[in-house]
Amino acid sequence: MSMINYASREINCKLVYYGPGLGGKTTNLEHVYGKVDPEQRGKMVSLATETERTLFFDFLPVDLGTVRGFKTRFHLYTVPGQVYYNASRKLILKGVDGLVFVADSQMERMEANIESMQNLYDNMTEYGYDVTQIPFVVQYNKRDLPNAAPIADLQAQLNPGWEVTEAAKQKAVPDPNNEGEFLVEQKDGMWVARAPYFESVAMRGDGVFETLRHVAKMVLKTLS
Amino acid sequence: MTGAGTWSLGESDYTKITAQLTDLLKESNARCAMVVDRTGQLLANAGEALSFDPTVFASLTAADFSANDQLAKMIGEPEFASLFHQGEKESMYLADVARKLILVVLFDQRTTVGLVRLRVKQTVQDLTVVIEEMFSRGPETGGGLLEGADDEIDLLFGE
Question: What ipTM goes with this model?
Answer without folding.
Answer: 0.83
